[in-house]
UniProtKB/TrEMBL annotation:
One of its GO terms (molecular function) is DNA binding. This is LysR family transcriptional regulator. Belongs to the LysR transcriptional regulatory family. The lineage of its organism: Bacteria, Pseudomonadati, Pseudomonadota, Gammaproteobacteria, Pseudomonadales. CDD domains: PBP2_CrgA_like. Coiled coil: none annotated. PROSITE patterns: HTH_LYSR.
Amino acid sequence: MDLFDSMRIFVRVVERGSFSAVARELNMGQPAVSKQVRALEQYLGGAVFARSTRHLALTDQGQRFYSHCQEILSQLEHATRSFASGQEQIAGPLRIAAPVSYGRLCIAPLIGAFLQRHPDVQIDLRLNDYNEDLLMENIDLAIRIGLVKSEGLVAVPLGTSTRRVYAAPAYLDRHGQPREPAELAGHNCIAFTLLEHYDRWHFTHRGEALEVAIKGNVTSNNSEAIREMVLGGLGISLSPQWLFAADFEQGGVCSLLDEYQTTALPVSAVFSRERRRSARTMAFIDFLRENV
């Protein structure tokens, strides 16, 4: 077993959520992909996936190992890029796309520090919750949250976006607090529709995968709108921690079901395989890896 190859395959299975999808992507048979993951589990001495009939979820140990794999493989990619890039000047225009809330809260505050380090770069930050066509829109780099399924894109892992279940005290006062995920089925849940299978929320608890079919009287394709509705006491959301971090500290929302792990979403910097990797693009990716 080649450990690095097995780690790469494992990471792609997590990101794609499917053994068969990775097999098609890598032009391998599905049994070969499964064999690589089983060999990795044998090497580690434990399961990385809590397999169920409907959903492929990570075990607690698998989630930690996934984070380490992202970091190790990213460091390897960084070392390779550094060797190849030589002394190309870090200068010129850099067009970056990002989701609206993540761009506002997590990317925009970092721009000033990056430009202090590289003052000859000019940044155009485009915020849009829809995945734009990087080539058509002439975008150098995009930040994606969730699985990157396009085979025409190169994805560099930046980390994961941990999610929690949130509700305002006013909502909980009226409807009570769920004590386990199954009780969410009886609550007004606000779903973010840009995620695949947005009407099913997944949890793990002590290695067991749990799936809850949620329902509610409102959905949205914009996380800022969901935040406002949750703060207004309309319902419960499964949202990234960064979206509600300030509200949670100020007591505007409560974090629920904290003993249950939710599926963390991968955060990636992506660029087109057909577009040349400029030094400024690579410098911004390295900067994000240090600071996000």
